[in-house]
Specification:
The protein has five helices and no strands. It is mostly helical. The longest helix has 12 residues. The N and C termini lie far apart (about 25 Å).
């Protein structure tokens, strides 16, 4: 079961392309998380069945980014 914060993280990630300004500043302003904490939680949420059930498109996109060897933003 996803918490309200987990759903907010997935909702933010889905809509983040619509936001203006640097993403890390928007993360802190909207969610109150540091970028590092946000990406840690995002990776944890998209790795769960509940996350995939809540937002399958966003979870698949993020998982593809994580698995991409050229991606440094979501590298663990």
């Amino acid at each position: 079961m996803l918490s309200d914060e987990d759903r907010a993280i997935l909702d933010f990630e889905r809509a983040s392309w619509c936001e203006s300004g640097p993403k890390d500043q928007t993360i802190e302003m909207v969610l109150g998380l540091t970028s590092a904490a946000y990406y840690e939680r995002l990776i944890a949420v998209v790795s769960t069945r509940a996350g995939s059930a809540y937002d399958p498109l966003t979870t698949k996109r993020v998982l593809r980014l994580i698995e991409s060897p050229s991606n440094t933003e979501l590298a663990v």
